Amino acid sequence: MTPHTDTPHEITFWYDPISPYAHLAFERLPQALMGLSVDVRYRPVLFAALLKAYGQLGPAEIPGKRDWTYRQVRWLAHHHGVRLELPAAHPFNPLALLRLGLATATDDVPGATNRYVTEQLFHHVWHGGLDATAAERLAALQTLLQDHMAQRQRPWVAPDSDIVKQRLRENTDAALAAGVFGVPTLACQGRLFWGQDALPMLRACLEGDAWFQGPDWDAAARLPAGVSRR
Asked: What is the pLDDT of residue 216?
């Protein structure tokens, strides 16, 4: 195990509120990393752009897998005691939500949303079973986030402004450059941990589990493919 240190572990939490797994990971993160010193930066990305870059379909775009995904996330929410109600329609276009989140970003962390803002984005989608794209709900969320920024005496940037659109593009490009292929992905110590079920693995890494100093992590990337369907 690593010795105790007051220096927090830096974690980047790549997410898109369209993902129920990202919502589950967000809600479970404090408990999963309890007792550890961490500094988490929440960075929204356009999941659809990641899928396009890798030539993939999303889980909700594949018949059978779509049904299983919704069943599994409901069960995982039940199992972990996390509130999760499916929205009125899914998948949906999350651009408005992503831009609302990044309208709250500040100069010191221009591509990040704080935990409160991130929570509001997830709750907008996964609490209540409502339409995530309804204009009146988006307007109410914008008012909530504007009030939050005013209380913090921080500037509000229009969600449809070029600077906000650029922040989202830069986040998505940075995620792709880092090797991120899905959400949620948590990046720490040069490693990527994908999915809410990777939280115990992330904790083990932060605690200095000797497995991470062995050959298995790097060996996985060197395993040759026996066949390719492309």
From this structure: 95
Q: Would the pTM of this model clear 0.90, i.e. be above it? A: yes
Distance of CA 208 to the CA centre of its chain: 24
What pLDDT, on the 0 to 100 scale, is given for residue 106? Answer: 84
The per-residue b/e assignment along 195-227, b for 16 or more CB within 10 angstroms, e otherwise, is: bbebbebbbebbeeeeeeeeeeeeeeeeeeeee
At residue 101, does pLDDT exceed 90? Answer: yes
Q: Tokens 């220096």 correspond to what residue?
A: 7
Reported confidence tier of residue 220, pLDDT bands at 50, 70, 90:
very high
> CA–CA separation, 22 vs 195, rounded Å?
7
Q: At what angle do helices 162-177 and 95-102 cross, to 10 degrees?
A: 100
**Helix 199-206 vs helix 20-32: angle between axes, to the nearest 10 degrees?**
40
**Token pair 């240190």 in the structure block, residue:** 5
Kindly write down the DSSP assignment for every residue of 36-98, as one continuous string: S-EEEEEEE--HHHHHHHHT---GGGSTTHHHHHHHHHHHHHHHHT------SSSS---HHHH
- Quick: pLDDT tens for 181-215: 999 999 999 999 999 999 999 999 999 999 999 99
Domains plus CATH for the chain? 9-208 (3.40.30.10)
For 18, other C-beta atoms within 10 Å of its C-beta total 26
From CA 40, how far away is CA 165, in angstroms rounded?
A: 23
